[in-house]
Queue: 2 jobs
Job 1
Amino acid sequence: MRLAIAGGQPVRTKKFPAYRFIGDEEKQAVARVLDSGVLSRYLGCWHDDFYGGPEVQALERQWADYFGVKHAVAVNSCTSGIQCAVGAIGTEPGDEVVVSPYSMCISATAPLLYGAVPVFADIEDEYFCLDPDRVEAAITSRTRAIIAVDLFGQPYDVEAINAIAKRHGLYVIEDAAQAPGATYQGQHAGTLGDIGVFSLNYHKHIHCGEGGVVTTDSDELAEKVRLIRNHAEAVVQGKGHKDLTNMLGFNFRMTEIEAAIASCQLRKLNSLIERQRANCDYLANRLGEIPALTPQKTRPGAEHSYYVHAFKFDERVAGVPRDAFIDAVAAELPVTELREGEGVKICNGYVKPLYLLPLFQERIAIGSKGYPFTGPDHTSEVCYDRGICPVVERVESKELFGHELMRPPVTQEDMDDVANAFEKVWTLRDQL
Ligand SMILES: *Cc1c(COP(=O)(O)O)cnc(C)c1O
């Protein structure tokens, strides 16, 4: 028998079914909004419509109920939601914010938008979220906050990181973009820090086009997020809002159509997560039999929501490098319907450590003169050299692989094909 990458027959050629999570409910909801004639109902001044239209407000109530949090504020992306959160906590030029190098870029770059500087702390070897010891070591007298990411759908180390934040008087912003439906000790991801942010973009568990939701139990933070979302600078006077810190507003408003879709999507989240967990558990059991592969563990007390199903690869055990092995597995499998040209949903690594982005290497963010990295507010330079976070560099370059093949309607039979592809490559790896 030969590996497909060496010209043999692949394990499977029938495409994997596409994750199609938009149904009749969403179509009816969109039609209802179109019939109303009101596609968005915000006004950027102090008026009844400052808080948005009926669909936006209904989604916010539904979201707050579902996640068990006092306030949910709908925005037009998680990116803008994180920006609102960083602004709402009163971030100042000269501040530092401790961030993870292993995430989507905005969870590291958002502080820059308010003149603060990100400081990277390394990740945990096992769970890939911020390592509390490294967070502690990164804290200085200038630190204002920690942005903790629930990477791949795994909650961050809530107890340790929240304790550090409390001890040093810092805010925790939780980037829960990848973790709707994950929990820690029964409490939802997105409500584990002072302020949480979700994403509703196409790649996430539930989606509405583009969208995000900010969650918090704090009345004050929620109101600041609502102001930043909708032209705060033009609203504060009419509203009688006294604290002008970061009350530069933007237009980060979600439309009525997106809110109506998101509401339908949220109702399906439980059943989606249940099916994903079953598929991931099943596959992890089978792949766990292969000596070089270790399925990602779930943190004690947590429930994972599987945005990505991650594994670690041990090249010393396998005798071949990760990339050669995973490329060979991918060659045994077909693409997914709708993903023509995008390849099989299995990846070597996730993202390059974020401090290696040109933005940090060149220290050019706002304007061309190095602000805010250098200048009057930042007297000591933060280091972004290769090597500052050795765990993430090793995990990304040699060890981690992940897949997104668990999304329904795939079944255990589809997972069997995936497992068979891994087993075939394992058995025949000397052909690589
Ligand atoms: C997707 C994602 C974001 C950004 O979400 P958008 O809604 O596209 O802005 C932020 N953080 C993480 C961890 C993400 O995965």
Job 2
Amino acid sequence: MRNEWLIALAAVAVAHAEDLAFSPPRYPSPWAKGKGEWAEAYEKAVDFVSQLTLAEKVNLTSGIGWEGGRCVGESGSIPRKDFAGLCMQDSPLGIRFADYVSAFPAGLNVAATWDRNLAYLRGQAMGEEHRDKGVDVQLGPVSGPLGRTPEGGRNWEGFSPDPVLTGHLMAKTIEGIQDAGVIACAKHYIANEQEHFRQSAEGGFNISDSLSSNIDDKTMHELYLWPFADAVRAGVGSIMCSYNQVNNSYSCSNSYLLNHLLKNELDFQGFVMTDWSAQHSGVGDALAGTDMDMPGDVSFDSGTAFYGSNLTIAVLNGTVPEWRIDDMAVRIMSSYYKVGRDHHRIPVNFDSWTQDTYGNLHYYANAGYTKLNDHVDVRGNHAEIIRKIGSASTVLLKNVDNALPLTGAEKYVGVFGEDAGSNPNGVNGCDDRGCDDGSLAMGWGSGTANFPYLVTPEQAIQAEVVKNGGYFTAITNNSAIEQAQAIAKLASYVVPLARRFINVDGNAGDRKNLTLWKDAETLIHTVANECNNTIVVLHTVGPVLVDSWVDHPNITAVLWAGLPGQESGNSLVDVLYGTVNPGGKTPFTWGKERSDWGTDVMYEPNNGQGPPQQDYTEGIFIDYRHFDKANIEPSFEFGYGLSYTSFSFSGLDVQPEPAAPYTPATGTTGAAPTFGKIDKDASAYLYPQEINRVEAFIYPYINSTDLKAASGDPHYGWPAEKYIPEGAQDGSPQPVHPAGGSPGGNEGLYDIVATVSVNIQNTGSVVGDEVPQLYISLGGPDDAPKVLRAFDRLTIQPGEQKTWTTTLTRRDVSSWDVVSQNWVVSDYPKTVYVGNSSRNLPLKATLTLNS
Ligand SMILES: *[C@@H]1O[C@H](CO)[C@@H](O)[C@H](O)[C@H]1NC(C)=O
Ligand SMILES: *[C@@H]1O[C@H](CO)[C@@H](O)[C@H](O)[C@H]1NC(C)=O
Ligand SMILES: *[C@@H]1O[C@H](CO)[C@@H](O)[C@H](O)[C@H]1NC(C)=O
Ligand SMILES: *[C@@H]1O[C@H](CO)[C@@H](O)[C@H](O)[C@H]1NC(C)=O
Ligand SMILES: *[C@@H]1O[C@H](CO)[C@@H](O)[C@H](O)[C@H]1NC(C)=O
Ligand SMILES: *[C@@H]1O[C@H](CO)[C@@H](O)[C@H](O)[C@H]1NC(C)=O
Ligand SMILES: *[C@@H]1O[C@H](CO)[C@@H](O)[C@H](O)[C@H]1NC(C)=O
Ligand SMILES: *[C@@H]1O[C@H](CO)[C@@H](O)[C@H](O)[C@H]1NC(C)=O
Ligand SMILES: *[C@@H]1O[C@H](CO)[C@@H](O)[C@H](O)[C@H]1NC(C)=O
Ligand SMILES: *[C@@H]1O[C@H](CO)[C@@H](O)[C@H](O)[C@H]1NC(C)=O
Ligand SMILES: *[C@@H]1O[C@H](CO)[C@@H](O)[C@H](O)[C@H]1NC(C)=O
């Protein structure tokens, strides 16, 4: 059965050719069960929700409209219970649109640290800042995009194209945020891998609908869903459904994604919220598993909503069952209690739309003049962790004859390139950092925070050189070639900085090429031709092509510093001068040519006026899995990074562990519970007499007891069979998914099946960090030559040997079986590899398992 009903409700007419990918319907929407670590929160949520009226329940699920309140998204409030609306705020790297906050390194840099502890500390620090500004939900972290194509415009918001590296760091970031008392939001679910066509109305293309990412079941499980499973297992409170379609059904309307994969198989107990305007229907999305509509209006400030009044109406007319609205409310409140919002909550003390102290509470409506900003400084000592992650994430890509670290005895240091200096328009001078001026330390758009300051490379290197009694010149004009030439001749060491950015110069979100911008290659060549000790530093949002210059004999060192946040220059100086020995490893592959990746962004619609069809024909083979399979030599492989010391690996030991056999989950759930009593008399929900309606604001109330008139929807009252999918209203006990049964999937997937240990010795003369990486070959014809399964970051003293011990779970050695719809351990011979990059794996052993 096709789900045309979604399309009808979204009022977007599109004729689906029969041969397009489609998403099978899966109903009803699983209700929360409050098991395990959710038990106590669930109980509190049930108690709270049981006391609410229908309008109050609807308020919890409905946004009040774009720029209706202080936060980028707010739900309705429950004044009778003294319960303020929930505040959702960007971004994955700090707080967007607020003052006296920190600008943290991007997720991409966290990935480059390969350090779970740093991921946790950053999450916790960000959570504290959100908490102290009064935010309930931090809109991050990100594992969609995962990084299918290197040009993908928002890859930097997430971690790495490797699902295991991303999954571990997602989980730790979530734990950090939620331990600080704020709900995390894992986003964007799912396959939101490019910016082009994410919303049909954007970009001036004449297309009826958003792009459809068409993904097969195995690829979904083994690649894109994997980190979301880790997020759910880590207890994430909310998940954001994305703009794009999957198999021609919008993510927020797709019952297969939400009901089947997320809420049944992964047993997600929290709530699903929409991306901003990613909702395309009311009844349809509620039944498909969407619990909260953000920012709440059909389109920004339309004053109409898919939820709000329409959800009240839909419960009254019986299309959305009582148990479903109750489940939506309980899921939201379970997350609230789970992270301790009832203890940590303070009123919101900032405003997203102005930094003035006084202004209008309802920004769009120009109403409600009040004190908006208390200018609370929430930064604490977070500059320290930011500086630390900045240096820990710096990857040393080349270092000839110990060109680095610098000693401080350099007589004349020249620094070249716009990326070294300040933005002449101010550190936050471009809206949402959407320009390419001055040093690059953050991405753009909704993934940003305001810089409290930015220590530029120019400032930090100059301070160091001056301290050492040296001579210093910086040229931050990429076009000042003559001047650069003259200075490079004089200098004993030069550091050209090059950068790469997005959303400017015809780059519509996604990058249009992989070369450096502003002709940085010419600058690099100019400087390197004059100075035999040229150190290139790159701030980029992902891989760039380096082959035209990286082997220049005068380029003695290359550092990649990613998007390090506010302490950028200090973090760089720490590495340049050896205060910190670099231990970062590249979290993506650097190809020699764009075509090396085998995947690309779709820049032109390929389906006429219909939704562009992005077929993920490469399957699981993205990034290093593709380079390995196609045997392509990269410039720098996934996992690569040098150090100022050296390490040796020895003594690989792989021991199978006794594990109980894997048992598919069985049985059924209980029947869908309802909480409290819903008054079905429509007159109870009329706009209250005394209410002073704010313009374009979304309320749970109705204009009239004539529900059709109250809805204002011309299609109102269509016979249910036209748009209510079979079984969607059924609250009877439902079968448990065999691969499910507990948050993150079947508990047996996480049984330990092997212990692996290896000795790592620091064979050099300075202390350093090494990242042992364990890869597995699963051995089958459809499997990648190898996949990352475990890693750690160890600090080892010179001469010292450490034993790294790690474990493998059943999930680590399994493949998704599309026939049994479960994970299976295949009979193919399996091999374990350990080393310090995806292409330097000196140790290997056969993996034999007990069962
Ligand atoms: C998309 O279609 C493919 C091919 O039929 C199928 O394997 C997969 O499960 C579908 N996924 C979703 C989310 O509908
Ligand atoms: C719903 O939320 C709005 C906005 O916060 C509030 O004005 C209204 O009183 C709430 N309604 C109910 C029934 O609690
Ligand atoms: C978009 O395509 C439709 C269908 O071909 C056409 O009628 C319409 O004029 C086009 N609009 C624009 C702005 O090109
Ligand atoms: C109800 O939803 C429909 C779209 O399905 C929309 O056109 C209408 O304006 C909504 N009504 C209200 C009161 O928001
Ligand atoms: C940068 O250098 C070029 C070439 O010398 C020059 O034309 C341009 O005016 C300079 N830009 C600034 C902002 O000085
Ligand atoms: C790559 O894109 C940048 C930024 O739009 C542009 O300046 C540069 O010329 C492009 N490079 C190539 C090789 O097309
Ligand atoms: C390297 O730098 C030296 C100056 O130190 C210069 O003479 C030489 O030509 C440069 N080499 C290349 C290949 O450009
Ligand atoms: C660079 O050139 C200088 C001057 O000729 C020389 O002393 C120095 O050793 C050279 N450095 C490198 C790294 O080749
Ligand atoms: C990586 O491992 C090799 C040995 O296989 C060793 O020579 C090298 O020092 C290591 N590099 C780093 C940065 O740990
Ligand atoms: C409900 O009443 C308000 C205020 O009169 C009006 O703006 C709105 O359009 C009405 N909605 C519907 C669906 O009739
Ligand atoms: C019930 O209400 C919803 C929301 O307004 C509307 O879309 C739907 O058509 C209504 N269905 C019936 C059968 O009245």
